[in-house]
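Appendix C. Worked example: PfkB domain protein
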Amino acid sequence: MGDQNILVVGETLVDMLPAVPGDLRDVESYQRRAGGAPANVAARLAAVGADPLFWTRVGDDGFGDFLVDTLEDRSVPLRFVEQDPTAKTTLAFVAHDETRDRSFTFYRDGTADTKLETGAVPTSTLEEIEWVYVGGVVLAAEPARSAVFDLLRRAREANCSVYFDPNWRPELWDDDDTGVLEDAVEMADVLKATSDELEQLGYRQESLERRCEVVCRNGPHTVFLTRGDEGAMAYATVDAPWGDGAVEHEGFDVDVVDTTGAGDAFVSTTVAALARRSADLDRIVRLANASAAISATTTGAMERPPDWRMISEFVDSHTAPK
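Step 2, the predicted output written as structure tokens:
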């Protein structure tokens, strides 16, 4: 695509991946990897030729230098990648259980990605793009929360489509602040979530399709629902440019090494497909599941993001779901 019609917004951080699975108290060594859901999305969008703009903030420290170098190496434009001399870079220590699923311990109190500043992305830029993707973690702290909501309001006035991923991390939120996520859902055109995240947002209807239907009454016209190793589904209303309906895909059977970033791989592929104006919702979900499956076979979220050809060939060579 290469015309910079996507703006990604959110945190860039360092994932510290354990050498062995199990409780963090038993881990003696870690591998440093670039991470943060929006950063992963931006890098994967660049890999499929989407040339995204990325608004993020890291510390002016060694970790921040490493992240900026990694983004540049992944061909992510640095125009809105800021380094803050007054704040440190966020760290996330990852723990893997026996199934290679993960949990996080964050060091994020007053770090650089919590300090995004209102107006850093000018309205003139928003008027030139079509899609804005926002991850929910950046909304967990001020002043970044207010800065991002200001950007979302201006983006909607500029007729941008908004894609929101709550990326729920309960340890980052105060109990009385989680209504912020509901506000973001109301401003979104497209929502990507897990079933647990929909429950957290108050959607507890018996069937997943019914939950998606009710979500769409509150703002979005499309919901992508990821279900881990059970695949994913999508639900769209008549207001969606690609048509209404619900589709499901069971996912692909692969040898899982690390699930860190698999959801971000799903997101980046759906964003890229929508920005390409794809009208085939079933094909979009298959491509996104393929991207997530490929991601789960490697360590870290940005190490070897696949290009569009690799994702398409994976789908075509795995004609039958698991």
